[in-house]
Amino acid sequence: MPLRLAPALGFLALCALLGGCASDALENSPRDAQQLIDTETVRVIATNPTFIEGESGAGVPVGGLVGGLVGSAFGGGTGKIFTVLAGGIVGAALGSEVSRNVTTEPATEYLLERGDGSRITVIQPEQPAIASGTVAILQTRPDGWARVAPYRG
Asked: What angle, rounded to 10 degrees, do the helices at 59-71 and 78-103 form?
């Protein structure tokens, strides 16, 4: 019976992981309301495609559970304890890797030049790229949050 549950649990875990992947860096969240956000115009010096690595999140416990369930279908006596533990360890490692790969997202690294000539780098989830040499908006908050947006002035 536990072996029949493994595919269903794996499918549910995958759905949960995929559900948290959607984001749009240029949308405002409720946290942005009534916050002081400094805004300045900057020039985009260069862009570089990159990735924002995801986190293992729910992959470790879900993978461990599924691996343990699969391991319980093998062995007997004290051997069954070993197969459950081994299945749980292997499942947790695989779950961590799958979760990390599923939550890794493409991003853009922007090298920006401020009005005073200083330069800053911002990495954000991939959006339609802002071309090098163009003017953009840099928004920052005191907590370190930053984003680059097209200038529409």
From this structure: 150
pLDDT digits (tens, 9 = 90+) for 73-102: 777 777 777 788 888 888 788 777 766 666
Pairing relation of β-strands 105-113 and 119-125?
Answer: antiparallel
Q: Are 139 and 124 in contact (CB under 8 A)?
A: no
Q: What are phi and psi of 143, to 5 degrees?
A: -80, 5
Q: What is the DSSP letter of 54?
A: -
Computed over its alpha carbons, how large is the radius of gyration of the chain? 22
C-alpha span between 139 and 32 (Å, rounded): 11
Beginning with the edge strand found earlier in the chain, give each strand of the sheet holding 38-52 in spatial order. Answer: 119-125, 105-113, 38-52, 135-140, 146-150
